[in-house]
């Protein structure tokens, strides 16, 4: 689960991280009052969406030369003016895709005198099984270009889980970021604060970009992006309250209600599969034959007819889907249950695109019998390779 910048900063501040004062607003009427609460003379007006690249983003509704989604304001009047331009409009960044995201809230923040911009993030290093700090002296809006062009400027520092962040670890981070004086002293405590927040709140990623050295020599978290492990959210009701469903795909929200593992993608072939590994293989073979999957969908090993029906309805609700591939290998999951769910869903929502079904495993004969006697216009497949070729061909023919 992702949260907004202002929420992430509030979480980090509760652990003792240095952040600027700021106020979240949801309407233009709140803009001046927010500015009044901050000292000025510089305010920063920040769009709050679940995507990076806001500073270089463009608003669909504004002229091409308009400022991005993060703006400096040198008067309270400018704060209000920027709020009027940004709230309710669609911000397009390299992470949102061309559709962009509507800006429904802003964060008005006190400005800072910046001497240096650094990059710092914490994540789980899957190669070592340890939490790691990823740092670079090249912080700011172009960190992706740094990673691509000069990866040697990004360093990964693993933390021993039993020891946590030690003074020696903080020194390693400071050395990597070339910190001296007050900034180096600050890192001695900040590294431990961020690590503590990461572990105690079950974060999957904590990104501070930029982490700044101010002109007075001290560190400040200027931007923060935080994601949480969805499997651990039951332990954090305070974090669950921060969820903004307007930033999430409606199909993914519906899938979560039925305990379905669903991720929306950009392709046009909908997939219903049981098992995450088989789902990945199904997506791969669709790409192998020249098409793109519209989703990842694992109905799980113990799905009911109702759950399968819900999954099928979610797939058909995607207007980008031009064909559907059902690929089931019945172990714990029974093929007849899948067949009953597919038939029930089609009878309820209709079938306007080609449907290929490949069933194998437990009760496969009964599952095929249910499909064959349903009267549905279904293309049967013998194996995964056959199924992938048939759905790709059917979609191309339909176009």
UniProtKB/TrEMBL annotation:
Keywords, alphabetical: ATP-binding, Ligase, Magnesium, Metal-binding, Nucleotide-binding, Tricarboxylic acid cycle
Q: Which PROSITE patterns match?
A: ATP_GRASP, SUCCINYL_COA_LIG_3
Residues given in the record as Mg(2+) binding sites = 209, 223
Q: Where is the ATP-grasp domain?
A: 9-241
Q: Which domain of life is it from?
A: Bacteria
Cofactor detail note: Binds 1 Mg(2+) ion per subunit.
Checking Pfam families in the record gives: ATP-grasp_2 (PF08442), Ligase_CoA (PF00549)
Task: Please list the cofactors this protein needs.
Answer: Mg(2+)
Please provide, alphabetically and separated by semicolons, the GO molecular function terms listed in this UniProt record: ATP binding; magnesium ion binding; malate-CoA ligase activity; succinate-CoA ligase (ADP-forming) activity; succinate-CoA ligase (GDP-forming) activity
Q: Where does substrate bind?
A: 274, 331-333
Q: Does the keyword Cell division apply?
A: no
Q: Which GO terms describe its cellular component?
A: cytosol; succinate-CoA ligase complex
Q: Does the keyword Ligase apply?
A: yes
Question: Which InterPro entries would you find in this protein's record?
Answer: ATP-grasp (IPR011761), ATP-grasp_succ-CoA_synth-type (IPR013650), ATP_grasp_subdomain_1 (IPR013815), Succ-CoA_synthase_bsu_CS (IPR017866), SUCC_ACL_C (IPR005811), Succ_CoA_ligase-like_bsu (IPR005809), Succinyl-CoA_synth-like (IPR016102)
Q: Which NCBIfam families match?
A: PRK00696.1, sucCoAbeta
Q: Subunit comment for this entry?
A: Heterotetramer of two alpha and two beta subunits.
* Task performed by this protein: Succinyl-CoA synthetase functions in the citric acid cycle (TCA), coupling the hydrolysis of succinyl-CoA to the synthesis of either ATP or GTP and thus represents the only step of substrate-level phosphorylation in the TCA. The beta subunit provides nucleotide specificity of the enzyme and binds the substrate succinate, while the binding sites for coenzyme A and phosphate are found in the alpha subunit.
**By what name is this protein known?**
Succinate--CoA ligase [ADP-forming] subunit beta
The coding gene here is sucC
């Amino acid at each position: 689960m992702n949260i907004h910048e202002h929420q992430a900063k509030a979480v980090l501040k509760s652990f003792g991280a240095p952040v600027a004062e700021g106020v979240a607003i949801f309407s233009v009427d709140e803009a001046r009052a927010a500015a009044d609460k901050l000292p000025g003379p510089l305010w920063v007006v920040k769009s709050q969406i679940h995507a990076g690249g806001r500073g270089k983003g463009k608003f669909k509704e504004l002229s091409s030369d308009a400022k991005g989604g993060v703006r400096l304001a040198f008067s309270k009047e400018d704060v209000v003016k920027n709020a009027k331009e940004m709230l309710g409009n669609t911000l397009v960044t390299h992470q949102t895709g061309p559709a962009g995201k509507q800006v429904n809230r802003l964060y008005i923040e006190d400005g800072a005198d910046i001497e240096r911009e650094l990059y710092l993030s914490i994540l789980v290093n899957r190669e070592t099984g340890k939490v790691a700090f990823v740092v670079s002296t090249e912080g700011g809006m172009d960190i992706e270009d740094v990673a691509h062009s000069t990866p040697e400027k990004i360093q990964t520092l693993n933390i021993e889980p039993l020891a946590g962040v030690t003074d020696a670890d903080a020194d390693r981070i400071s050395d990597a970021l070339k910190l001296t004086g007050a900034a180096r002293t600050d890192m001695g405590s900040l590294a431990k604060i961020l690590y503590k927040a990461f572990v105690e709140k079950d974060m999957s990623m904590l990104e501070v970009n930029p982490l700044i050295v101010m002109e007075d020599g001290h560190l400040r978290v200027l931007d923060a992006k935080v994601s949480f492990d969805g499997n651990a959210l039951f332990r954090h009701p305070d974090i669950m309250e921060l969820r903004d469903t307007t930033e999430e795909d409606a199909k993914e929200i519906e899938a979560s209600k039925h305990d379905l593992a669903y991720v929306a993608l950009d392709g046009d072939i909908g997939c219903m599969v049981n098992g995450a590994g088989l789902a990945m293989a199904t997506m791969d073979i669709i790409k192998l034959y020249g098409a793109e999957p519209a989703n990842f969908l694992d109905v799980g090993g113990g799905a009911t007819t109702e759950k399968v029906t819900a999954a099928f309805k979610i797939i058909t609700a995607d207007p980008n889907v031009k064909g559907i591939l059902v690929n089931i290998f019945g172990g714990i999951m029974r093929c007849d249950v899948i067949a009953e769910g597919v038939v029930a869903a089609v009878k309820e929502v209709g079938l306007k695109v080609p449907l290929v079904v490949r069933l194998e495993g437990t009760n496969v004969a009964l599952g095929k019998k249910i499909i064959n006697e349903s009267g549905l216009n279904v293309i049967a497949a013998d194996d995964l390779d056959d199924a992938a070729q048939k759905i790709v061909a059917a979609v191309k023919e339909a176009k």
